[in-house]
């Protein structure tokens, strides 16, 4: 097995590949600048919520196949170097090379012949040739001859977890066959999924297109909601009518007012900066980002002072709050002079449920499993006249008795029952 170094190895992306590799027998060192996270992991605690990852961490520490470090010099002993630092967009929505270029500058003095460098992060396809040139210029090595370079972004399903990495497909982008074969040999030790050779541009497009396909579908679900609303129709009844089983995949997806996430605000711009017809992606962005404003419009016909937001993270049962639209909603509500309370059991700063008391309205933004029983939520609110806003149709009560996700508790026709 190989000696593996993961740069950014204590982040969500880096720690997943670190733990999987360590549990497959590789000797892994996760390098990170966050000493607090390093110490947490050393003592067996995950620095964030990651379903199923705890057992991998426990086993890796027990087998001593995972180490953690603040220093880059360990790279000189590695066979495989995995970089998990992403590329943001600048104020003009152009891809920014600086974080990746900085990582290359930091590690270049420790790189040696025959090493495999893997970029695991989501990059703009426009900067891949520049990355190759930077590595060759800084090291004096020729890619494919002296040193090997591959791009292998993580392809995780929308609700996937660390277990999926063992069976996921793994396309690998490489400029030439030697780098692909070297990367393929490594990934065959990690996943049983299909491994394909693509160009570097193709593999990043695969990652971006997969993500944007889901994002655009979510925008259509949100636009369907708005269309139904314009006719006074109930989108949840429509969706249920064309689906045999609501627990299965819906023909018409549920609307989602919090369809954000750390990549969605930038990845679309990686795709559309050179095409003449970019309206589909840009429109999806506008629709999804406008949903907090649509919620506020609904509130204006009600007499409301205090509003509670349920869920501040960008997806259910997670503590990842990056780019969550809950924060956009909170700010907009403040500007409208509402008294706003936020509750999220996954975030320490919002974990006090007592803030829900006496709320005039509760807005569900993130459907955590802790919220599955509306009765329990209402016990925390303690207001029999509370207005419930649940555009996703998460609760049976709003789905069956609400008006397009709006339910006035004291006028509900059915007795409130917990979602089963």
Summarize this structure as a short list of keywords or feature phrases.
420 residues, alpha/beta, Rossmann fold, 6-stranded parallel β-sheet, 5-stranded mixed β-sheet, elongated, disordered C terminus
Please characterize this protein's 3D structure.
The protein is α/β, with parallel strands linked by helices. It has 2 domains: 3-198, NAD(P)-binding Rossmann-like Domain (Rossmann fold); 208-411, NAD(P)-binding Rossmann-like Domain (Rossmann fold, 3-Layer(aba) Sandwich). It contains 13 helices and 13 strands. The strands form 3 sheets. The chain has a 6-stranded parallel sheet with strand order 3-2-1-4-5-6. It has a 5-stranded mixed sheet with strand order 10-9-11-12-13. A two-stranded parallel sheet has the order 7-8. Strand 5, helix 5 (128-139) and strand 6 (148-151) form a beta-alpha-beta unit. Helix 1 (12-23) crosses helix 3 and helix 10 packs across helix 11. The protein is elongated. Mean pLDDT is 91; it is low at 413-420.
Roughly how many Å apart are the termini?
46 Å
Query: How many strands, what sense, and barrel or not for the largest sheet?
Result: 6 strands, parallel
What is the overall pLDDT average? Answer: 91
User: What's the count of strands?
Assistant: 13
User: By CATH's scheme, which homologous superfamily of the largest domain applies?
Assistant: NAD(P)-binding Rossmann-like Domain
**Which percent range fits the helix content?**
25-40%
Q: Tell the overall outline.
A: elongated
Please give the CATH architecture of the largest domain. 3-Layer(aba) Sandwich
Number of domains: 2
CATH class of the largest domain, named Alpha Beta
Element-level helix/strand string: EHEHHEEHEHEEHEHHHHEHEEHEHE
Structural class: alpha/beta
Individual helix count: 13
Rg of Cα set: 24 Å
Would you identify the regions where 5 or more consecutive residues have pLDDT less than 50? Answer: 413-420
CATH topology of the largest domain: Rossmann fold
Strand order of the biggest β-sheet: 3-2-1-4-5-6
């Amino acid at each position: 097995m190989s000696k593996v170094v993961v740069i950014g190895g204590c982040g969500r992306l880096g720690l997943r590949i670190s733990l999987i590799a360590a549990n497959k027998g590789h000797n892994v060192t996760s390098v990170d600048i966050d000493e607090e996270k390093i110490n947490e992991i050393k003592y067996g605690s995950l620095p964030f919520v990651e379903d199923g990852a705890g057992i991998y961490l426990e086993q890796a520490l027990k087998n001593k196949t995972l180490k953690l470090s603040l220093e880059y010099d360990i790279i000189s002993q590695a066979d495989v170097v995995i970089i998990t630092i992403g590329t943001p967009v600048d104020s003009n929505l152009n891809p920014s090379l600086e974080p990746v270029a900085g990582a290359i500058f930091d590690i270049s003095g420790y790189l040696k012949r025959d090493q495999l460098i893997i970029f695991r992060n989501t990059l703009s396809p426009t900067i891949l040739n520049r990355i190759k040139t930077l590595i060759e210029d800084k090291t004096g090595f020729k890619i494919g001859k002296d040193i090997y370079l591959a791009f292998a972004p993580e392809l995780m399903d929308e609700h996937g977890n660390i277990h999926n990495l063992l069976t996921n497909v793994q396309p690998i982008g490489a400029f030439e066959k030697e780098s692909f074969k070297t990367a393929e040999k490594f990934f065959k030790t990690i996943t049983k999924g299909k491994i394909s050779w693509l160009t570097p541009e193709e593999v990043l497009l695969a990652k971006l297109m997969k993500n944007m396909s889901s994002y655009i579908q979510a925008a259509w679900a949100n636009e369907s909601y708005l269309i139904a609303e314009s006719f006074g129709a109930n989108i949840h009844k429509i969706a249920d009518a064309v689906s045999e089983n609501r627990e299965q995949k819906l023909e018409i997806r549920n609307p989602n007012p919090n369809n954000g996430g750390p990549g969605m605000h930038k990845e679309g711009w990686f795709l559309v900066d050179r095409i003449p017809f970019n309206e589909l992606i840009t429109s999806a962005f506008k629709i999804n980002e406008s949903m907090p404003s649509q919620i506020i419009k609904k509130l204006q016909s009600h007499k409301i002072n205090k509003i509670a937001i349920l869920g501040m993270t960008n997806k259910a049962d997670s503590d990842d709050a990056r780019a969550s639209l809950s924060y956009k909603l909170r700010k907009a509500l403040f500007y409208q002079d509402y008294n706003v309370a936020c509750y999220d059991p996954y975030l320490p700063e919002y974990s006090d449920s007592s803030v829900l008391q006496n709320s005039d309205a509760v807005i569900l933004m993130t459907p955590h499993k802790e919220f599955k029983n509306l009765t329990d939520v209402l016990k925390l609110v303690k207001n029999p006249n509370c207005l419930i806003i649940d555009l996703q149709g998460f609760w049976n009560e709003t789905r069956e008795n609400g008006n397009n996700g709006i339910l006035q508790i004291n006028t509900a026709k059915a007795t409130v029952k917990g979602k089963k």
